[in-house]
Structure prediction request, 970 residues.
Amino acid sequence: MPTEKVSLDVTEAANFIFDMSRCIKCKGCTWVDHIYMPGVKYSTRCPSATRYLFDSYGAYGKMRIGLALLEGRLEYSDELLKILYACTLCGACDVGCKRNLDLEIELALEALRIQAVKDGKGPMPEHKKIAKNIMEKHNSFGAPHKNRTKWLADGIKPSPKADVLYFVGCSASYVHPEIAQATAKILDASGTPFMLLPDERCCGNILYSVGMVDEAREVAQQNIDAVRQTGAKTLLTSCAEGYRMWKVDYPKILNMSTADLGFEVVHLTEYVDGLVKDGALKLANRVDLRLTYHDPCSLSRLSEPWVPWEGERGLWGVVDPPLERRRGTNGVYQPPRDVLSSIPGVELTEMPRMRENAFCCGAGRGTKEAFPDFASWAAEQRLMEVKEVGAEAIVSACPWCKDNFSEAVGNNGSDLKVLDFSELVLSAIGSTGQGR
Amino acid sequence: MAISKEAYSVLESIVGPEYISADPAICEGYRAGPGGYECGLGYERVMTRVPGCVVMPRTTEEVQRIVKVCNRYGIPYVPYSTGFYGARSHPHVSDALLIDLKRMDDFEIDDKHLYAVVGSGVVYSQLQEEAMKRGMYIIVGGGGSQVSAIANMIGDGWSPLSYRIGLPHRRILGTELVLPDGELVRLGSLAFQDDPFWGEGPGPDLRGLLRGFTGHRGFLGIVTRMAIKLLPFQPERLEPTGISPHTTLQLPTNRVKWINFTMPSKDSMQQAMVEMAKAEIGGAVTKVPIFWRAIARAGSKEEFWELWSKETEETIRDFHVLRVLLIGFTSEEQLEYEERVLMDIIGELGGEARRTRPTDESWFKNADSAGMWLMCGGYVSVDYVIETVEHAIPHGENYAKLKRNYTPPLMPDYGDPGWFQSFELGHQGYSEFLVYWDPSENTDGVDQFYLETSKENIRKRFYTSLLGSHQPLYLTGPAFGPNYHKWLLEVKEEFDPNHVCHPPVPLAHDAFVERAEWMKPLKDWEGPAIADEP
Prediction:
């Protein structure tokens, strides 16, 4: 059998025809891993398939639709665009498929959005407005660029030069300054000098996520150049979406390895875990709270480093050279749990769907902007789970999760606390820098 | 729109606008292939169609009303629970209505009387977890944890655990069946009260008709609700551990234990099964196909092929691994006793225990059928035989010989004679023959091999389960009946006079042979001319 040349280049959807054509409708992408199946409740991990129910909204439907589109058997329509975009790209389907079949579902979905943009059909109108904000005002909200550092007002003084560069991101800069401030105080408390980019701009998450890969690539290159110019050795984020962009998607769209960025990308949860385990940060203050941890998709199952691959696929679908598949196994699952459970007084309880089986909050990757009702519904689904385990608070490690959960809590009048990881850690060390 | 606006409006009024669609993108999402069970083959390419409309009812009453609309407007329809059973569970004619039953996910469990009542949308792993939380268990059919429990119960529904708790027809209790014309039949005790505790009378018992040999794949109506018998288990929790893809259940080894044995020969494996049954010990016993071992050991498709390419005719011929499950249902002492008896049996037969992980990756909660596609991309089980263990072994050996003529396109397996095991505490034996291929290759030979297995069964008098809708009815019906085909068609005519319930099943495989050029030379039996679909 002749071999075919293939690569993981998402700008060519044809690279994923094999994956689209090998889906067997086992729906491992939708169900929680059967080993962990909690019963008849909370049994799915795909928000899109759970909300819209038609098979067409599950990865099995999307693979068939994608294939029909690429083979010219199906035309774009409003429904088709909704199928492509009313999806959190949360990676649940990808780890589910790689439990047994190793198909590149996440990349195929990203490639289909890029294809939709190429074909002049995507993204959704709401996304175009956000893209305009990003390209013109360097943030997704359309806020004045000069306000980006307003969160610094609380007496926080970054270093002009340091090994650690804190990339704050749009959400913590403009909407959730408490996360940026907590992060800065934690770093300060641990004796970690940190700097900011002289002129921080949006990471471009939404641009890439909705398929605007040319614009995303431009942002990626500008940001990487800016960080390299600072000489930082570590880029630290408190935002899971930003973490994934820097660690995975920048290298992906620039055809390079994560290892070749020239600096390490670290999330606050990993960094604090290291500080606590090294004794550089003491979590001494008691925080009496029964809480549950929500795994942000981009920190957990989507966060494994990127390595470009191209090669040939031959008989039986065997590829050469060998491909190290990203299956979500090595996502950041344990560090935040270790940190939270080491805080005196904290009782960490797990939801039925956790780690790689977690149900996305619904906010990420352009979903909330174009489908706010769907995003709210997803958050409410998750909050039902929080209630089920009797937690007083849900803690995440991404401002986009906090935002969406907070809104849902506000809508349903619950007294549940929605907190970011950084806030909990700050409470545990005290806000006066006594963490060492 | 594939169905008339009037019919669509009526259907929409039944389920509401959110649960019906004729949008081409929605319908394309329900295409059978190109991947999946038996997909990528001629049968899928020639016989399946994208539905013209999809509807998702919530209740039995809604299903009845939908089916009556189909009869009134002459709309062909297909019931669909999860769609995993590949080509045969998808529409075979254009403009069909696909009735997606996933919203019918009601679930009740009665732990006093040991049964659960499930809707068509409940899958096995959900049912198993709910049962295990309450000290009970059920067989997760080899079709996989992800399949609808009802669909599997009325089709296949077995696994190695069938050794202890039997085949599924024994566990079907009160059931609701919407007949092809929309009439509702309540089976068993449901016929006279709202209590499904009993499957046989005093109401009508149509369970034989529901299942046939291995099910009718939706051409005799729609089961919307079923009470399923659960069995008592041991009390300790099987703890999930690991991160995907390395997830597993940690076994409480004082109560549940798998043990693998190296046996000197195939005969000794068979003898072990017989002796275990006589001693009434064990929770499961099965021969391990060697490629399953390779799948379990490989970290990827590429690693599988690296491992598999080292095998030879000799290594396959000399590979005799027996896998036994012990369960201390009543006590730790029961497990200890059964283990001592088992070791005596194996020792007398010259076998040796191998180190076995104290975990369960497959069968209790997770039946890894999906993993069968990793190696090649294409998979189907061409036959199941449920007879005796003595019968099962030559069945597999004959198929292995026959398979050589079709390799390639079938995957090289060095003469592996399939998978066999013991059911119902030794009262039955089981043989299953799985084949794999690369869907990118010409697969005509796979279609031909599938049909040739039927002829082999007739020649060698193997008691196959894959009759009816699975093979040409006019080939298998006369041989296994002698008038099985006539009887089945008369039943179909009686229940579905308008021919709207999953046409042209049970004559679909006959139609396939008529329509596929590469199949025509194989037709050496008398059958009706079946016209191409207009």
Summary: Chain A is about 40% helix and 10% strand. The longest helix of chain A spans residues 213-230. Chain A touches chain B through 63 residues (CB under 8 Å). Residues 126-275 of chain A form a domain with the Glutathione S-transferase Yfyf (Class Pi); Chain A, domain 2 fold (CATH 1.20.1050.140).
